[in-house]
Design goal:
- It is built from 5 helices and 4 strands; from the N terminus they run αββαββααα.
- It has helices at about 5-20, 55-65, 90-100, 105-120, 135-150; strands spanning about 20-30, 40-50, 65-70, 80-85.
- It is globular.
- It starts with 6 loop residues before the first helix and ends in a 5-residue tail after the last helix.
Amino acid sequence: MVLRMNKKEIIWLAGFIDGEGYIGITSQRKKENRQQSASVHYHPYLIITNSNLNILKEIKKVVGFGHIYKLSQDIKNHKHAFQYKLTEMEKLSMLLPILQPYLRLKQRQCGLLVNFINTRKNAKRIYGPFRGATSYTIEEDIYQKLLILNKRGL
């Protein structure tokens, strides 16, 4: 799969991500069962939230993949909000390096997520009591750094 975005679209998208986007990692705790012990799994994602559905459709069209979701409306008299989400590592690994030079506010988050994806791609599968220990430590470190960078408020 090849991205077919021109420079103008890349710069436009980077600006949108800087203003309305979120580049991060989510963690999910897996329960213990007979086959595996309890563990934490990390998943990369890019989210752009906006009340204008048409602009998110345009973003999806320009990028060529991703999904759009309607958010639940909790407050009366507020506009409906929508999210463009991209969570697939292979697609993020193509998109993020192209966007990174044009990001201003989220360039560090982008670099950390690229590092996370590369770490995951290059991780060797280890079976036994110490499986995944090295890549897990790196992934946890990147996750914690992104939490700090993406923290809201003071």
